[in-house]
Each structure stands twice: as structure tokens, then as C-alpha cells.
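Ligand: adenosine-5'-triphosphate. Inputs:
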Amino acid sequence: MTPSERLAALRNHYTDVVRVNETLTKQLRSAEQRRERLTDDVDRLKRENETLKTSSLYVATAEELTDDGIVIKQHGNNQEVLTEVSPTLRGELDAGDRVAVNDSFAVKQILEAETDARAQAMQVEQRPGTAYNDIGGLTEQIREVREAVEQPLVQSDQFDAVGIDPPSGVLLHGPPGTGKTMLARAVANQTDATFIKMAGSELVHKFIGEGAKLVRDLFELARQNEPAVIFIDEIDAIAAKRTESKTSGDAEVQRTMMQLLSEMDGFEDRGEVRIIAATNRFDMLDRAILRPGRFDRLIEVPKPGWDARKQILKIHTREMNVDDSVDMEEIASETDGFTGAELASLATEAGMFAIRDDRTEVRTADFHEALEKVGDDDDTTGTPIAFA
Ligand code: ATP
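Predicted complex:
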């Protein structure tokens, strides 16, 4: 082999070695990335495992503090137990406090007012910030709600003079995200009424044994804050059609609903308290709650049509820096099947695209990208982004 042939062979060999080195470096990098991912997974699983291993606590009320210990009453089964409490906790504990106890009924912590179940279930707003002109479309529904809720509160004399009772309760029904809560808040705002919101599902899932008491408390709270609008969202959770099953959970739901009906039937005592309920599952409702004197004014809140979509888009972009060339009519045409909530998210998404592009004004292209994103997030147009 001549020296020049040997040199060529060495060069070839060198090129091969460099290529192999590159391939191995790439493999090493991807192995390292995989290791990082797996380490993250292990960390996450460890955390989940820890959470699963910690046993849950039960909620109880401290009834009496005695020299032998404290008497607690468990929620749900009302069982009374004499138990121990650590000296530190004992100093802070008063009769009537809510506490968390473990399997052996030892008091583990005293629940703060914020974690108190009752406080969590009801949201009270002295005067909600929603106005009728924040609601796009729904002109007819606004008229009906005003007639059934606002007028009896503002012009109760007129109802007395004519000699008729105003409708007892209003039931708003329609798909999620179409503005039912907004309607209820707007009417409370217009009448200077306190707005008290409670979700039916919260009543049932978290507070077995307490539903009926919560309903009583709700009406009591409303009476103390007259004029007040009570808004019960997801009413189907406590007023679903009766089923054949006889589990204790069902009996509990029944009791909660009976309490609601009896509060509503005692209409004369209700004074300046109006009740609005909402549901996405009208078909599931027990017809007993729709009888006269109960939820006797039904108002359907449908998905917005083209005109309403245009208005909703205008409402949700009025604070945004939108370029003059953006045609809301065109976007309204492209969002057939969208709900109000989806249109609100669409506007926010479009703003996000502008920010990502380092701009301060929002263009048509941003709306189109936002629309595409919505399409990618979920294949079915019209499925609410927020609820997907
Ligand atoms: P759910 O049944 O899930 O409680 P909902 O019908 O009560 O839904 P809202 O809570 O009133 O829906 O609406 C959710 C959000 O969607 C509102 O905060 C608002 O931003 C937007 N939205 C919905 N409908 C309208 C509308 N008609 N006009 C303007 N904004 C709307």
C-alpha cells in the first residue's frame, strides 16, 4: 500500500468514526431526556402514593368539653363519641366548633371558618357586578326574568293592587355556558338585592346528612338579607326524577328536595326573597318542582343565534384593543353552535395569540388561529372550551 493509499484509508476511517460518534451522542442525549422524563414520572407517582396513603378525616362538631375528654357528634350518622384531644388543641377548642377526626375519633384539627362547609356552599354577593347590557342576545329571556323577579321586588304594591301573586320561582334551563348565571346576577344587581348562590351538586356530594339543614339556612340567610335573590345552580342534583333505588344517598337527596319544596310552599313568609334555579338537564327534573307555586315560570336559555353571537363577541372584545379591520359579523358566521362561554374564551384566546406575536392589537388572523385551536382542542364544534 502506497503512503497516499494509506492516508486515504485513514481519512475514510476517521470520517466513519466521526459519524459513529455523532450517532452515539444523539442516542445519549435522547436517553438522558428519557431518563429525565422517567424521573419526573417517579416523583409524581411518589407524591400520588403519599396522598393515597394518608387516610381521610371525618368532619364532626365538638358538642361538649368535659374533664374526661370531649363529646363530638359525627356528621352524617349523628353518632356521639367521647374522645381525646391534645392539650394544645384543647386550649383553642370551644363547644360548637367544627373539627376533623380520624378513624379512632381523635381530634386532628379544628376547622377554620373558611373551611366550614356551610360557608363554602353559599356564595353571597351584596351587589353583583353584572348588568343587563353585559348579556348578549337573550332579550326575550331578560324581559321575562325582569317581569317575574324584578317587578315583584321593585313594584310589590302594584301586584297587591291588582290582587295577584307574582310567580314563585323561576327556572332557567338550557345548555351550559349560555348565560343563566349572568341573568340571575344581573337581576340582583338591578334590584339592589343580595345575590346568594348555591350549587345543588355541592349540597348532595359534600354534605350527606346536612342537605335539608343547608336549605333551611339558605332561606334564613336570604331573609336576613332582604331583598335577596337566591340562585340555585344545577338544581337537577337535588330535584332529579325519583328512581327505584333506595340507597341512603337517594333518601338524603329526597329530604333535601322536600325541604326546598316546603320552603317554597311557605311563600307568604318569604317576603322580598326571590328564587331562581338553573339546570342543563331539564329532562331529568322531577315534575313535582314545576307545580304552580313552585318553579312555575320556565325560561329556556338557548345557544346564541348569529345576531346574539355578534353581540356577545362585541361585549367580550369591548375592552380589547381590536384592529378596525376585524369583522365581528364574519366571526359570528364562523362560530355557529358556540355558546356564550365559548365565545368569551375565543376572544381571550385571540388576545393570547396577539401577545405571543408581540403585538398589542388583535387582528383577524388571531381570531382564526383561536378558532383553529378550539377545533383542535375538541373535534365537535360547539363543545364548550371551558367545559371540554
Ligand atoms: P352553567 O350552566 O355551566 O352554570 P351558565 O348558563 O350559567 O352555565 P354563565 O355562567 O352565565 O353560564 O356564563 C359563563 C360565561 O360565559 C359568562 O361569565 C360570560 O363570560 C359568558 N357568557 C355566556 N353567555 C353569555 C351571553 N349571553 N352574553 C355574554 N357573555 C356570555
